[in-house]
Amino acid sequence: MDIPKFSDIEDAYMRIEKYIHFTPVLSSAAINQIAGCNVFFKCENFQKVGAFKYRGACNAVFSLSDEVAQKGVGTHSSGNHAAALALAAKQRGIAAYIVMPENAPEIKKKAVKGYGGQITFCKPTLQAREDTLSEVLLKTGATMVHPYNQKEIIAGQGTCALEFMQQQDDLDIIITPVGGGGLLSGTSITAKYLNPDIKVFAAEPEGADDAYRSFKSQELIPVQTTNTIADGLLTSLGELTFKVIMKNVDDIYTASDVEIIEAMRLIWERMKIIVEPSSAVALAIVLKNKEVFKDRNVGIILSGGNVDLAHLHF
User: Which molecular function terms from Gene Ontology are attached (predicted)?
Assistant: First the structure.
């Protein structure tokens, strides 16, 4: 599989610009004081479907030829990618076949249905997701759009950092959460091309730390069991995203669920915006490792804001 180049990200931006929101960059004096550095938040929680995933899904859907597109697209996803693909397909006027685990958050099931996605439920294991999707693709002839391990997806996610670095051109560090690694990969390609001196860090929950372990051991270690509130970061890195991350990323840090909830609460209370736990991991590692970030200009991509409010417990 080819690693996307910066030119692929530029092409993606031209392709999707009219379909996506140009999201704002916000900051908080109170959070800067607490963190001991200048934090700039790229608010992808304000993106369509409430997450950055819409960028990659849009690029993948609108990259297809008319002939291929007419049979629809399919994927397996527990949430944001599913909703993103359903909406991108709707924008193009084609079908989206989504395989979701039975235990996916209700808010995400509702979103997929609302965007016209055709859901097939399966058991909550990767094997069940993959097997069910294979059956659906065989039956429909739809094109598989991987949640992260695909060139078009990575290039689409990389457009977020492209906007971010135009909006805030003095960043010393840029941080994204990492699950499957699509956002991190795309961000790292963009950031290192535009500023070879910038540091690219990833933030991951301790209860799903396969990217951290893979990065440190320099070999791909799939996640075995997960236990974290950050439901958007449960997936393992793909071979393609792992390759990009090993080439471009400077370090990966982890945070506990308690630290993630504390960071999420801080964003809610000080900035008056809703982010999901997966988004708050990046701020959690800044607060946990203050010496690393002291007095620096730190860019954080707030990846999404889809919180299932029915399950809120502090």
Answer: ATP binding; L-serine ammonia-lyase activity; magnesium ion binding; pyridoxal phosphate binding; serine racemase activity; threonine racemase activity
Return the bridge partners of 119, or none: 98
Catalytic residues: 53, 78
Instruction: Name the residue among 301, 307, 313, 236 with its Cα closest to residue 44.
Output: 301
Q: What is the DSSP letter of 218?
A: T
Number of other residues whose CB lies within 10 A of the CB of residue 232: 28
Task: Please list, in sequence order, all residues whose beta carbon lies within 8 angstroms of the beta carbon of residue 245, skipping any fewer than 6 positions away.
Answer: 178, 181, 184, 185, 188, 202, 211, 215, 237
Q: % helix / strand / coil in the chain, to the nearest 5?
A: 50, 15, 30
Phi, psi (degrees; rounded to nearest 5) at 199? -90, 135
pTM (two decimals): 0.94
b vs e for 64-91, b when ≥16 Cβ sit within 10 Å of the residue's Cβ? beeeebebbbbbbbbbbbbbbbbbbbbb
Cβ(180)–Cβ(111) under 8 Å?
A: no
Q: What is the pLDDT, as a whole number, of residue 104?
A: 82
Out of 3.30.300.30, 3.90.650.10, 3.40.50.1100, 1.20.950.20, the CATH code matching 6-51+157-311 is 3.40.50.1100
β strands within 56-209, DSSP E:
73-76, 96-101, 118-122, 143-144, 173-177, 199-205
- CATH topology for the 54-144 domain: Rossmann fold (3.40.50)
List the single range of 188-197, 228-237, 272-281, 286-295 with lowest mean pLDDT.
228-237
Its sign, for the CA torsion 282, 284, 286, 291, is negative
